[in-house]
Amino acid sequence: MRVLGVDPGLTRCGLGVVDGGRGREVGCVAVGVARTPPEAELPERLRDVADEVERWLDEHRPEVVAVERVFSQHNVRTVMGTAQVSGVVALAAARRGLPVAFHTPSEVKAAISGSGRADKRQVTTMITKILGLAAPPKPADAADALALAVCHLWRAPMADRMAAAQARSAELARNHRAKLKAAQQAAQRSAPRTGGFPR
């Protein structure tokens, strides 16, 4: 499976493409950053990010897009920009019929380093080692994008199994309710009627 990982941001949007093999085998295909000037107007910056994301989608043809889930920060302006870029990325993927998966920073850190509290330097060190890269990806946004892609590759099989188990459980529950209802209706039909006057 080929995954495009996206670490959304207006000034720097990390992009990383990773191929998954058997088990936990992963390989880096491409890594980079889409940049926009802070002095530019918001619509122009979003357009530029969208153009670059679409170029990556066309060039690398991923099967799924993994995006960092926006979380609450003290800087509301930063959160808004990150959320807007996430929306642009999701839209570009949806137009190509690609599924989009969102992962929290703690999920990514835990998948890559074993600790949901790892810092950016630890994540960069681990993703460099996991992918066998000659040098750490820079800036950190690029490393985070690769980490998102690897996180999805490693978490997706478990998530699929959980979703299948939940669907099976829901189906069994529906069948049980249907049988129970049918049994109750049958019991009501066969119950002797009482009351009334003989003719």
UniProtKB/TrEMBL annotation:
Subcellular location: Cytoplasm
Main location: cytoplasm
EC number, UniProt record: 3.1.21.10
Coiled coil: none
Record SUPFAM superfamilies: Ribonuclease H-like
Cofactor dependency: Mg(2+)
Protein name: Crossover junction endodeoxyribonuclease RuvC
Organism (species): Saccharopolyspora rosea
